[in-house]
Here is the input.
Amino acid sequence: MAVALVTGASTGIGEAAAIRLSREPGTELVLVARRQERLRELAESLPCRATYVAVDLTAEEAPERIRQHLEDEHGARLQLLVNNAGAAWRASFAEGGHANVQRHMALNFDAVVRVTEALLPLLRSSAPSAIVNVASTAGRVSRARTGAYSASKFALAGWTDSLYAEEKPHGVHVGLVLPGFIRTEGFPAAELREKALTRWIVSKPEKVAAAIYECGPGGKPERYVPRPYALAAYARILFPSLTRRVLTGGSASSLTTSTGGE
Ligand SMILES: NC(=O)c1ccc[n+]([C@@H]2O[C@H](COP(=O)([O-])OP(=O)(O)OC[C@H]3O[C@@H](n4cnc5c(N)ncnc54)[C@H](OP(=O)(O)O)[C@@H]3O)[C@@H](O)[C@H]2O)c1
Here is the structure.
């Protein structure tokens, strides 16, 4: 029996990941997010045993509540932790300032680190096991009005690489998933879907769910979704001046979409 915990499971990529994982024989799922009713409905609809913890991941007591739930309901076992919950609130630095950076870091980075810290002993004792951190292509390439979001995802990507090296000897694989534009409640990508020229670059949560599976139990270290988004990350390293010109030119504004968090 493998116990898998998915944060941000009430909608979007997390919900798709939970559905994907529930198809694996013998899986037990733990769903985490704030909206209890959504978690309950999803848990009841899945073909495997699923429990849930309705909690704000930025709350002081969240990591301990989740750890306690795993002890009480799942025998302190954990084979897969998917750190997926996250959000974006678009603003330039001049508008949003440090407060907006702090808001992003609290959910997209600090909460991930705190939950992982609380659950690492369970992951080690349940090894072979895995952690999958859901970052973003914005964790490799930064655009105007997404600086605070990018900072949190760059931090997550850097920390993930380090954790990969540290936990390998303990049998805990650490994978990184970097989605591009994926149509969800929090990231509707409405501006891109309106135009035939950009519609094709928007992908689906199910594709990210498949990548999460590949980077967890499948053992891959890293996946961009869709795969061609990796080219943006390579271009940022190999052609930094050209990348800056493209990202500050006229077409760049069409790549900045409004988010559900705004
Ligand atoms: N969609 C994209 O284009 C895209 C691209 C790159 C990366 N990503 C990343 O993928 C991940 C999932 O995004 P998504 O597109 O699926 O977004 P989404 O549809 O907005 O889902 C976000 C999930 O996180 C949960 N969440 C948000 N704040 C929370 C909090 N304080 N405590 C607990 N749970 C919280 C939400 O549940 P509740 O509201 O019920 O708490 C929801 O289940 C995020 O980390 C995001 O940065 C998304």
Q: What stands out?
A: The pocket of NAP is lined by residues 8-14, 33-35, 38, 56-58, 84-87, 107, 134, 136, 179, 181-182, 184-187, 260 (CB under 6 Å). The CA atoms of residues 175 and 215 lie 5 Å apart. The mean pLDDT is 96.
